[in-house]
Amino acid sequence: MTDRELILEYSNGNLDAFHKFYDRHKNSLYTFLCNRARESADDLFQETFVKFIDAASKREIENPGAYLFRIALNLLRNTSRHEKTILLKPDYDVPDKEIEDEEESPVSEAELKNSLVKLAKEKPDFYDVLHLHIFEKMTFEQISSVKEKSRDTVASRYRYAIHHLRKMLQQNMKLVKEV
């Protein structure tokens, strides 16, 4: 059964369906929370499932697995706000020192197009996400639906696409400077 079918069964009173959903996601959710907030992972884990159960009892959830992790991410953000710390997530792009000097060496449109074509050939999964997000203005959730991958996978692929594109452009800039 799919996650959605399990949660629909749970909504109709089948507790075993929820136990199957819980067993399917508990390890990955707990690992996810431990990697980001070790001290409060237990509390966040329990609160995530409580909020999920509450939401599932009020409405139909299209993608329960993704929704569960969305709740966890929101709880992590709220926790970090309350602690007044910055929480770095995979979908935040932290610029490299070398990239901050972009105004000194602008990239031509032709170089960018060539690098995008090269990225599409070498890393098609990364390119797809980059293209859909930047050029099609799709959110990571929408892309995860299209690609049938988790939102976290989509965000990670986007980050890797940006990283590879930057490396290609930097290599092109070095070649131009040497000529």
Q: What does this protein structure show overall?
A:
The chain is mainly alpha-helical and 179 residues long. The longest helix has 28 residues. About 12% of the residues have low confidence.
* Category from helices, strands and their pairing: mainly alpha
The CATH topology assignment of the largest domain is: Arc Repressor Mutant, subunit A
- Number of discrete helical segments: 8
Rg calculated over all Cα atoms: 20 Å
| Helix/strand order, N-terminal first | HHHHHHHH
State the separation between the terminal residues, measured CA to CA.
60 Å
What fraction of the residues are assigned to beta strands by DSSP?
Answer: under 5%
Q: What is the residue-mean pLDDT, rounded to a whole number?
A: 80
Total number of strands: 0
CATH class of the largest domain: Mainly Alpha
Fraction of residues in H or I helices: over 70%
Oligomeric status: single chain
CATH architect. name of the largest domain = Orthogonal Bundle
So what's the overall shape?
elongated
What does the main sheet amount to?
Answer: none
Q: Supply the number of structural domains.
A: 2
Low-pLDDT residue intervals, each spanning 5 or more residues: 84-105
